[in-house]
Amino acid sequence: xxxxxxxxxxxxxxxxxxxxxxxxxxxxxxxxxxxxxxxxxxxxxxxxxxxxxxxxxxxxxxxxxxxxxxxxxxxxxxxxxxxxxxxxxxxxxxxxxxxxxxxxxxxxxxxxxxxxxxxxxxxxxxxxxxxxxxxxxxxxxxxxxxxxxxxxxxxxxxxxxxxxxxxxxxxxxxxxxxxxxxxxxxxxxxxxxxxxxxxxxxxxxxxxxxxxxxxxxxxxxxxxxxxxxxxxxxxxxxxxxxxxxxxxxxxxxxxxxxxxxxxx
Length: 264
Description:
The chain is of the alpha+beta class. It has 3 domains: about 5-40, no CATH class; about 45-135, 2-Layer Sandwich (Pseudouridine synthase); about 135-264, Pseudouridine synthase. It has helices at about 5-15, 80-90, 120-130, 195-200, 250-255, and strands spanning about 15-20, 20-25, 35-40, 55-60, 65-70, 100-105, 110-120, 135-145, 150-160, 160-175, 180-190, 225-235, 240-245. Strands 4, 5, 6, 7, 8, 9, 10, 11, 12 and 13 form a 10-stranded mixed β-sheet that branches. A 3-stranded antiparallel β-sheet has the order 2-1-3. The longest helix is centred in the middle third of the chain and has 12 residues, at about 120-130. The radius of gyration is 27 Å and the shape is elongated. The relative contact order is 0.13. GO terms for molecular function: catalytic activity, acting on RNA; pseudouridine synthase activity; RNA binding. This is RluA family pseudouridine synthase. It comes from Flagellimonas chongwuensis. It holds the Pfam family PseudoU_synth_2.
């Protein structure tokens, strides 16, 4: 029996078997001595690539620093992640152990700011070790609700692990709805999940726009989370140069503090 054209096309897409030069089917009888060939055509469809422009703040052969906008995951099972967008935004390393660029730490979905990326196997290992050994200094800014002490240190367990954050209030403005809004400079000394959000909430000063760690009646919707990873300072693991990377505050911060707190 000769297959129809439609059946032949369907078979060819999936691969096919020929017996003595004829396409076989479940009705083909094998007696022995036949020439049986399995043919699997190459898939002409290229892997789908995420086209998502990212702002590159720093890049060399070893590593890069990228601005993470709000509304995108750093990594995960979703297609739209920073990890999937990195190859289209970075220049491949020419070093022998170059690899697909990989973020070496994470920011929350709604948080903006700097994400550090390794471009080689050795740099990914080195940066991971530097974060673990607390050799990378991180500076954040947040907009916190309510009256606060000018500065302080927060030490509390998060998920059973000791956590430590230092903060300084840079400026405050009155707010009809929230009472007081504070521009707060933060230095997390540990890297627990949601650490800064939990720490400020524990003081009774949740971050503006935070829906998860919030006080009843003081949730700002539709403006996003006012938390920004502003700066990273560290010694380059290979060139040994001092690296200081900054990412300017989003415009929504400036709209509130443009005149009240010009020196950040």
